[in-house]
C-alpha cells in the first residue's frame, strides 16, 4: 500500500512538472499559459505558436497523417525558439525533458513565417 502511495505522489509530481513546463512555453510564445491544460484548445494554441493554420487540427484525426503533422508542428515550434531538428527529435522521444528545457532556458520565441509560394 505504501508503494502505491509513493507511486501516485511521484506520478502527480511528474504531471505537475509537465504542466508547469508547457505553461511556461505557452507564455514565452505570448499565449495564455492556462491553455496548455484545456484539451483540443491546447493543440490550436500549439498550431498558433507553430504559425500553422487552425484546420491542421483535423489532420490529427487521420491515422498516420496525424504523426506526420505532429512532427511538422513540433519542428516549427523548435525553430520558433531557435532550436534545430535534433531538438525536435528530443521533443518527440523525451518530451518531458525537452519541454522543460524549452520552458526554463533563455530561448526567445520568434514567429517563423512560411516561405512565399513560388
Describe this structure in words.
This protein has 118 residues and is mostly helical. It has one domain. The protein is built from six helices and no strands. Helix 1 (2-28) packs across helix 6 (95-104) and helix 5 crosses helix 6 (95-104). The N and C termini lie far apart (64 Å). 19% of the residues are buried. The mean pLDDT is 93.
Largest sheet data: none
Fraction in helix: 55-70%
Low-pLDDT stretches are none
Give the number of helices: 6
Mean pLDDT: 93
CA(first)-CA(last) distance: 64 Å
Instruction: State the order of secondary-structure elements, H for helix, E for strand.
Output: HHHHHH
User: What best-fitting shape do the alpha-carbon axes yield?
Assistant: globular
How many distinct folded domains? 1
Beta-strand segment tally:
0
Structural class of the secondary elements?
A: mainly alpha
Features:
single chain, 118 residues, globular, mainly alpha
Entry summary:
Helices cover 64% and strands 0% of the residues. By secondary structure, it is mainly α.
Amino acid at each position: 500500500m505504501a508503494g502505491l502511495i509513493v507511486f501516485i505522489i511521484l506520478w502527480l509530481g511528474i504531471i505537475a512538472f509537465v504542466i508547469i513546463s508547457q505553461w511556461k512555453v505557452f507564455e514565452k510564445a505570448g499565449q495564455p499559459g492556462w491553455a496548455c491544460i484545456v484539451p483540443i484548445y491546447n493543440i490550436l494554441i500549439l498550431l498558433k505558436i507553430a504559425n500553422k493554420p487552425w484546420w491542421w487540427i483535423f489532420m490529427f484525426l487521420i491515422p498516420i497523417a496525424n504523426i506526420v503533422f505532429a512532427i511538422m508542428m513540433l519542428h516549427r515550434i523548435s525553430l520558433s525558439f531557435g532550436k534545430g531538428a535534433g531538438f525536435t527529435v528530443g521533443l518527440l522521444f523525451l518530451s518531458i525533458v525537452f519541454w522543460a528545457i524549452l520552458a526554463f532556458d533563455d530561448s526567445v520565441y520568434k514567429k517563423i513565417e512560411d516561405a512565399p509560394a513560388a
